[in-house]
Design brief:
The chain is α+β, with helices and mostly antiparallel strands. The chain is about 20% helix and about 45% strand. It has three helices and eleven strands, in the order ββββββββαβββαα. It folds into two domains: about 40 residues, no CATH class; about 140 residues, Alpha-Beta Complex (Nucleoside Triphosphate Pyrophosphohydrolase).
């Protein structure tokens, strides 16, 4: 057990290669004691790869948790001690084969802070050059290059259901509108 910032002790219920499930004990403002099971995750990156001003490279990725292939932005988990920028470069190449001439941090956000402490780092990748993918064993990923406007319409019609992808596409679209470049 380890003390947590909320003044209680954590109990590890399950430890995996990527995350831990922890029972967190805490004291509320009224003095009452509570406990919750939470998932502790090292953090991850997601990358918005723009081939040009009009085209984005999404991926079709089979996700066993939901038993379906989702349309997503490429993403991956931070390795211990790895800088998120390096993770973004590595994951872009592994999942799409593309290498970025320029990669820029856009924002960070939590995916589901009610149960999960995973912090997602969003990067924009441009000046892309193609190459070979380096998929991990068991990954089923295909590139899907589409007009950016099509990707946005897939959010509206429900074809894109992945939260990090929705955040990434809408964040970038909003930023482009704010800068007067539209999308």
């Amino acid at each position: 057990m380890a003390d947590n910032a909320a003044g209680g002790e954590d109990e590890i219920l399950l430890s995996t290669r990527i995350f831990d499930v922890v029972r967190r004990h805490y004291q509320a403002a009224d003095g009452s004691r509570h406990q919750r099971a939470v998932v502790e995750h090292p953090g991850a990156v997601t990358i918005l790869p723009l081939l040009d001003a009009e085209h984005v490279c999404l991926i079709e990725n089979f996700r066993i948790a939901v038993r379906q292939t989702l349309i997503e932005l490429p993403a991956g988990t931070l390795e211990p001690g790895e800088d998120p920028l390096n993770t973004a470069r590595r994951e872009l190449t592994e999942e799409t084969g593309y290498r970025a001439g320029t990669i820029q941090r856009l924002t960070e956000f939590y995916l589901s802070p009610g149960i999960l402490n995973e912090r997602m780092h969003l990067y924009l990748a441009t000046e892309l050059s193609p190459g070979d993918k380096q998929l991990e064993a068991g990954e089923q990923i295909e590139n899907l290059v589409v007009p950016f406007s099509t990707a946005l319409s897939w959010i509206d019609d429900g074809r894109i259901q992945d939260a990090k992808t929705i955040v990434g596409l809408l964040y970038y679209s909003s930023r482009q509108r704010a800068e007067g470049r539209g999308q």
